[in-house]
Amino acid sequence: MADPFLYHTGDRSGYGCLGHEVQIEHIKAYVCRPSFFTDKAVIVIHDIFGWMFPDIRYIVDLIAGHGYITICPDFFKGTDPWKTTDHWADFADWMKHHDPTKVDKEADVVLKYLKEQCDAKKIGIVGFSWGGMAVHHMMLKNPQLTAGVSLYGIIRDSEERYNLLNPTFFIFGEKDHTISYDQITLLEEKLKQYCKVEYKIKVYPGQVHGFAQLKPEDMKPADKPYIEEARKDMIDWIKMFV
Predict the structure, then answer these.
(1) 154 neighbors 178 (Cβ within 8 angstroms)
(2) Cα dist from 55 to 1, 10, 21, 93, 124, whole Å
(3) Count of CB atoms within 10 A of residue 85's CB?
(4) pLDDT tens digit string along 50-92?
(5) pTM value?
């Protein structure tokens, strides 16, 4: 099986994080706060490479810089994330033990922490790939989340996957061969039919799976405008609703 993540995940530059790690009940998390008080927060759900992956911590710091207490919990609960040295032939079996629709318990722990320890009143959620699927799931199940952004990750095997509880933005890359154009079209058709809240779907030209979480030094010049546009769109959606 070819590597579907075509943005060279094995050759990442280092990153000096701005936040710190905390222990919240049974899970660890990476937290970054803005320099001023805020009662708004964003949960970031990592991709298959886990909560310590430099790209995801860069995104946490980026969102915090826009004025949100931002937290990326370890939704794998201490188990190994997918590694760049793993074999894609084993991926389906790995996914059986890392189900993105089984994140509710950890999400509740983090929501409690944000409300009780950080005084958060409004909380949004953002997720990438595996985390995008988890965001789609959470926006169907948890009304405490005032808005969600799912980047190249959708629930595909539930007929109830269109009844979103709060505003949700779906971001896709045009050349993402893990999510077909037909799947995106179906999502749009069904949301028009069943969704009662605001939603948005946007496809970014020429972009592959994983494009929006690259750090600046890892971007290709031709992709940079679309990466920056996707991030601005993500932040704008959060600012609109959180």
Answers:
(1) no
(2) 24, 12, 16, 25, 20
(3) 6
(4) 999 989 999 999 999 999 999 999 999 999 999 988 998 999 9
(5) 0.93
Residues 6+ apart with CB under 8 A from 157: none
* pLDDT for residue 15: 67
SS3 letters for the chain?
Answer: CCCCCCCCCCCCCCCCCCCEEEEECCEEEEEECCCCCCCEEEEEECCCCCCCCHHHHHHHHHHHCCCCEEEEECCCCCCCCCCCCCCHHHHHHHHHCCCCCCCHHHHHHHHHHHHHHCCCCEEEEEEECHHHHHHHHHHHHCCCEEEEEEECCCCCCCCCCCCCCCCEEEEEECCCCCCCHHHHHHHHHHHHHHCCCCEEEEEECCCCCCHHHCCHHHCCCCCHHHHHHHHHHHHHHHHHHC
User: pLDDT tens for residues 191-222?
Assistant: 999 999 999 999 999 999 999 988 888 888 99
Q: How many CB atoms lie within 10 A of CB 8?
A: 13
Distance (Å) of CA 200 to CA 131, 167, 232? 18, 8, 14
Classify strands 122-128 and 69-73 as parallel, antiparallel or unpaired. unpaired
Cα–Cα distance, 42 to 202 (Å, whole number): 21
d(CA 132, CA 5): 14
